[in-house]
Amino acid sequence: MDPKLGRMTLKEWVAIESDSVQPVPRFRQELFRMMTVAADTLQRLGAHVTSVDMGSQQLPDGQSLPIPPVILAELGNDPTKGTVCFYGHLDVQPADQGDGWLMDPYVLTEVDGKLYGRGATDNKGPVLAWINAVSAFRALEQDLPVNIKFIIEGMEEAGSVALEELVEKEKNRFFSGVDYIVISDNLWISQRKPAITYGTRGNSYFTVEVKCRDQDFHSGTFGGILHEPMADLVALLGSLVDSSGHILVPGIYDEVAPLTEEEINTYKAIHLDLEEYRNSSRVEKFLFDTKEEILMHLWRYPSLSIHGIEGAFDEPGAKTVIPGQVIGKFSIRLVPHMNVSVVEKQVTRHLEDVFSKRNSSNKMVVSMTLGLHPWIANINDTQYLAAKRAIRTVFGTEPDMIRDGSTIPITKMFQEIVHKSVVLIPLGAVDDGEHSQNEKINRWNYIEGTKLFAAFFLEMAQLH
Amino acid sequence: MDPKLGRMTLKEWVAIESDSVQPVPRFRQELFRMMTVAADTLQRLGAHVTSVDMGSQQLPDGQSLPIPPVILAELGNDPTKGTVCFYGHLDVQPADQGDGWLMDPYVLTEVDGKLYGRGATDNKGPVLAWINAVSAFRALEQDLPVNIKFIIEGMEEAGSVALEELVEKEKNRFFSGVDYIVISDNLWISQRKPAITYGTRGNSYFTVEVKCRDQDFHSGTFGGILHEPMADLVALLGSLVDSSGHILVPGIYDEVAPLTEEEINTYKAIHLDLEEYRNSSRVEKFLFDTKEEILMHLWRYPSLSIHGIEGAFDEPGAKTVIPGQVIGKFSIRLVPHMNVSVVEKQVTRHLEDVFSKRNSSNKMVVSMTLGLHPWIANINDTQYLAAKRAIRTVFGTEPDMIRDGSTIPITKMFQEIVHKSVVLIPLGAVDDGEHSQNEKINRWNYIEGTKLFAAFFLEMAQLH
């Protein structure tokens, strides 16, 4: 395998603007192109590739958009070998150079050993590292130590639309021979020490719309006599979380798993240099001062973030508008054993209470637009032990055993539908900036990650 | 005068995207083109036209943009006649068809006698009505009853940048012979009954920036351990006004002029059909139930509107971002005898108080980006009486004597610098939707408005 070739393919893949979050035809076309390019790459590797038509998606505004196909691919079907299925996604979060990127987000740019570009670490780089590992065996003309399957989608950032139905349908076909499932869609907790992830948070994404009329007002002509939708919305959003990060929705903490002494000890075992973490995050001060509190609030407690407002004045300058209709957006990261539909009811009831106390004549509509379950695994499963050994071989160190505060809904889904052990083996460093401006993957992580996957194939062969 | 010709010119003028609010080079070029087109029109009318270079404008981000020229024009200088100066502006608020316009906002479109287009009523239509009135005398080969001056600018919606310096400079030159100043940059209070305006509210426009870092975060990776800027900002904005529209900034009402019995009577005299007003506004319920309360809260009490947030997620879809740096925007409409710099101090102190109680590690910066004084006139000045008579002649009715809740800073400025009586003679109907989607001027208002200005010239000649 030529690592330069791997980087060139990453450059090609990053150049495709496969944004699944903004529901516009242009990005959907890019997503389809992305899936075609990936299918071609796997075919050239000798895989048997199926691109599954996923139909189309009905948006809240009535618009219908096609869903990019899911790639199911297979390499080898030796019944004497174990079968490892790799899940990845090739869609990305929105990126716009004007939002603070130092370069065109869709042109992979190397600076000081860092490969900058939207999707570089989330998740195009890791998908390619797995492909590179397979192609290394091919280049060396060695048999693959395990049978390999791929399931690659293009809607992860938009909530893996329609994927669950597909996995359910393929449960006894594509997934029937699968022994283990590997995902590499999160980050280490440090810049240099690898990790294995055994749990992820879920996510409930809410919109709260406040409407006076479907047209804006001029603040000179109407300011002073209206129940202004923005005043209502700001009060609603302000009722959700206090300045210490505590969520104010009644009952929201009721189902959070109680904290045990044993669990506390797992956090103590993790090396986290808070000073380095704060510096690499470029955050002056966190809500908490100890390593244990920080890890627990990222992994095992829920959090609420307010993302923004649609329909208000969001440009530079000074527009004297009273927006007629605004949509607030926030989400709650869920942890075991919170339940998505209970949270939906709690949030809706809370917002209705707050709104009714305002005696506003506006209309309020609360919607949960995404509901993704939290996930937790058994870290004594065999593939966890294999992954640990592969990490020792490539990096010469024990991995951090971590959870992830992000949501990778497919983990929970595989566990519940396919009933196979799922492991998350992240490749990216803590400062990769997934979902934000100047996302990158380190050249070192990309190359060592490729080696790690190859070593993991060999360890998995030992298991069988 | 051919009224069709007047409408065709309005179509041409509306087609120029002279947006002064969004500080981008493309719109500035359009503004310059707008001023050139207007100067040409005035020259063809026989006016002596000067386009005054206004230099350039330094934006907060360091960018420099040229300011469109101000047109000073003169028609006639007969010392036996009075001299009336007309102020108008040819810049417009932002307009984007995707925001809910039923047509391209820059293509004047007639539907049921309504001429839709950005700037149709604010302020291109009224400027053209005045020009049409002058050209009517020309077409009839009659002498103008008065000497006419024009001062026409292109930065009104952006706070009339640099205009005050120009008026100060021209005080003893261009303005030396001026007896009266007429502005037509607001609306009637009804759909059919004309009005004269003797007061306007001022405006203090604020930005409050909350910054953690200049890069966004992923809510999975950082949600739960940050002082999130959006949570701070929502709390700050939520502390400004209560659900009854009462402003919560301490001391803000201290300098509001006390309400007299005589003043209450002026509101009682105004005909306002609340039911019709509510229907034409398409508002289900106002904050107040009586005509007097509504008029007072639009004209003689301050109001606070929250306009929006820059830097947060404002697109359709569900992005799980924690914005790293956000800017909230709100403004307070000021009334006699509130003072701009006192208000600036009160708001800044209040936000600093609220922010310090949150113990947030973020940085907050409050800025007043515009500060415009309220204005009030003596309604017994001679030109007020002349305008009343002209209205009786053209419309056969007494005008509503009203104030305007909007800010027309030039009124206060003319009064204070030029020391001449200023009158506001609006032409547009209450439902014209200035600053909002589907702005329009009625064909009837545009034509009768032209007649009204012609009648006003004749009445002014009588005065002299």
UniProtKB/TrEMBL annotation, chains A, B:
Cofactor remark from the record: Binds 2 manganese ions per subunit.
Classification via InterPro entries: ArgE/DapE_CS (IPR001261), CNDP/DUG1 (IPR017153), Cyt/Met_Dipeptidase (IPR051458), Peptidase_M20 (IPR002933), Peptidase_M20_dimer (IPR011650)
A Gene Ontology BP annotation from the UniProt entry: proteolysis
Protein name: Peptidase M20 dimerisation domain-containing protein
Keywords assigned: Carboxypeptidase, Hydrolase, Manganese, Metal-binding, Metalloprotease, Phosphoprotein, Protease
Entry similarity comment: Belongs to the peptidase M20A family.
Annotated residues for binding of Mn(2+) 1: 122, 157, 435
Required co-factors: Mn(2+)
GO molecular function (one): metal ion binding
Pfam families the UniProt entry points to: M20_dimer (PF07687), Peptidase_M20 (PF01546)
Domain Peptidase M20 dimerisation span(s) in chain numbering: 199-356
Keyword Chloroplast: no
UniProt site (Important for catalytic activity): 218
